[in-house]
Design a protein that fits this description.
Length: about 290
């Protein structure tokens, strides 16, 4: 039996740091232990491929799969020929994994299968850039022709992701048409961007890395104003929740009179001090 270590086939990107896994203690039981283990796994594996729950989570390295029959396919970019390829996932089968893998368990096996999703802050549209080569953007013209040969992004490189309740995603272009799989001459498949409606051909499974999904959640919390309770001033909190008028202090008429009198006395003292100073300056001038 060979004692050589088996090389990991997990896809990694340049610059990513490898995180060591922590050993778990034996004997953990119960639902709370399971939740704790899942939480640790999420923290230790930020590059785990997961499904987005909403359009805002689609960002960073992105894996796009279509559940075609008999073999699911993924949208791949061939940097050598500079063209988009619909790659059959069954071609990646190895002797070690003869059993078919479900579509939702598929992960990238090559960097050419990964697109990098970027977006302008606050915009519902995204840009899909190739993860290999010089970085070309996925675009669609008014005739529905899809390509990835532009280094700059414009309206034709913008896509609006639509996430359905079942988790699948459709991509709408600037012409309000949808990206889809189309059969061309010779029985081969190609991408088109001229579908009026969303059907089976226009639905994709999209996977992102869990760290970017977490990043999206943190952004949403900041937008909603969710902050740590320990940083809230207790006095201001009590005033806000105990006063009327959304935090404004409501006082009686007598209190208003007392406050006005107090302000008048203060202003009177300031006026007297100012007059005394002017008189002193005038006397000093004639001395």
């Amino acid at each position: 039996m060979s004692t050589d270590k088996v090389r990991s086939t997990k896809l990694k990107f340049k610059g990513e740091k490898t995180k060591k896994k922590r050993k778990r203690e034996d004997g953990e039981e119960g639902a709370s232990s399971s939740r704790r283990r899942r939480k640790e796994d999420d923290e230790e594996n930020p590059d785990t491929w997961v499904l987005p729950e909403n359009a805002n989570e689609i960002r960073g390295p992105t894996f796009v799969i279509h559940p075609s029959d008999p073999s699911p396919i993924c949208i791949t970019y061939d940097s050598t020929r500079g063209r988009i390829i619909l790659h059959s996932m069954d071609k990646d089968k190895t002797e070690d994994a003869p059993e078919p893998v479900s579509v939702l368990e598929r992960t990238p096996t090559d960097v050419s299968q990964v697109w990098v999703t970027t977006r302008v802050a606050g915009s519902p549209t995204i840009n899909l850039r190739t993860g290999t080569g010089e970085g070309k953007f996925l675009s669609c013209d008014k005739h529905g022709l899809v390509s990835a040969d532009r280094e700059a992004r414009g309206p034709q490189e913008e896509w609006t992701p639509v996430v359905f309740p079942d988790g699948m995603v459709a991509f709408m272009n600037v012409y309000e048409k949808y990206l889809g799989i189309d059969e061309v001459a010779g029985g081969s498949l190609a991408l088109r961007g001229d579908s009026e409606e969303v059907g089976f051909r226009e639905r994709f499974w999209v996977k992102i890395q869990s760290k970017y999904k977490k990043e999206a959640h943190e952004e949403e919390k900041r937008k909603e104003g969710v902050v740590d309770d320990s940083n809230i001033d207790e006095a201001n909190t009590n005033k806000m929740f105990q006063a009327w008028g959304a935090g404004r202090s409501i006082v009686s008429v007598e209190d208003k009179k007392r406050q006005a009198l107090k302000r008048a006395r203060k202003e009177g003292r300031l006026a007297e001090a100012l007059l005394d100073r002017r008189a002193k300056l005038k006397s000093d001038r004639f001395c």
